[in-house]
Specification:
Layout (H helix, E strand, L loop, with lengths): L10 H12 L2 H5 L1 H7 L3 H29 L3 H8 L6 H33 L9 H13 L1 H20 L1 H29 L4 H9 L8 H13 L7 H6 L8 H27 L11 H12 L5 H34 L4 H20 L6 H4 L2 E3 L2 E3 L1 H38 L9 H25 L6
Helix pairs in contact: 1-9, 1-13, 1-15, 4-11, 4-13, 4-18, 4-19, 5-6, 6-8, 6-15, 6-16, 6-18, 7-14, 8-9, 8-15, 8-16, 9-13, 9-15, 10-13, 14-15, 15-16, 16-18, 18-19
Length: 459
Amino acid sequence: MSVRRDNWGSRVAFILAASGSAIGLGNIWRFPTVAAQNGGGAFVLIYLVFVVFLGFIVMIGEISLGRHTQRNPVGVFRQLAPRSLWVAVGFLGLAAGWGILSYYSVVAGWTLSYVFTTAGGTFSSGISAEKINEIFLGTIASPTQAIFWHLLFIMLTMGVVMGGVKKGIERWSKILMPLLFVLLLLLVVRSLTLENAHIGLKKYLIPDWSKVSGNTLISAMGQAFFSLSLGMGTMITYGSYMHRRENIVCSAGWVCFFDTLIAVLAGLAIFPALYTMEGLEPQAGAKLIFIVLPGLFSQIPFGTLFGTGFFLLLSVAALTSSISLLEVPVAYLVDERRWTRKRATFFCGFIAFFLGILSALSLGSVTGLSHIMDIGPRSLGFLDMMDLFFGQFSLTLGALLIALFVGWKWGTRALIDEFSSSESRSRFSGLIAFQIRYVCPVVLIALLLYLILNPNAFA
């Protein structure tokens, strides 16, 4: 007999919570850079195609599984394919979400620390590039700082999840998501009013088809997929809290829209500002966020205020994602093991914290953790290894298996019946069924093979 579950208070609540799960650090520090390096507007258009024909379809499948069964990822497969190996897909999603949370909170802790570092005027006028680099290396290499901010971020996440679906996740999603959007709009306005902002806009938005290649297609595919929180059970779990009366297709569409909107707006906030200073070039990841941009903040008017707002934005985006990551294993323990939510949250949160300590110490504090393995020319520490196996391989494999399960085991007829149960049967039902049965598996197999052959592609 299934456990009585809480539900979202409204469709808006689900959309805000699911959008918060999808919107994370990758939207803000990776998407704009990859777009600029791969043809600007051309990349954005290709990205949108993959969001619509890959991410959106898999998301419909995951949400439908969750709502149909009203169960967590493990419970879904136990109910729909009892006594079969399909349950391993649920456990894979559980492990992926838990593993990602362990190192994601370490990186999120850096953004939280930089809110205070920037607000304190550290990146004031006249600071050298060497000093900025020294500050960042000191932040990530100091075991005390790295573990403290990691713990603080995990505790913030636990505080939200412990409140439950309505009083915790829904309540805070309604606060954090509008805050994120307002902060981002303010940063966009400030960035667009900087001198020579048009240079960055042209670099970012005008299509340059000469830069489009096979790698561009793979980058757009990977970005569209990884940014939507697919393949790790998050959307299954959030879908299980959805009312029968809610429109799955429409809700999934809004989540994809907001995730894409935030990514595009992040580029409008970063690139006009970046190109106001001569010699600055876009670089993906931590170097752009923690070294290049603080140097920019030290040179532009009201840079301290701009920088503080930017790192606050990153922290909010990270928190909305980490909440969903923690909810996946918590939901499993509450549903399948009959634990109280408080006990499950403490257990899952502190397991993620203690595992994350290894990631926190792998960036200079402990030599043995800084070099675990080599892949091509790249040396992987513990955090890098976790991201490779959980953040890339596990998510891709999980989404592939979910698409195969929905399309071939559960069946497209059951899928259509589920997402049509609360609304009139869509004229696109047949197209959605065809895509999840044939198109999505083929595309995800291609992405998985590419990751195996090029494991540094999304580093």
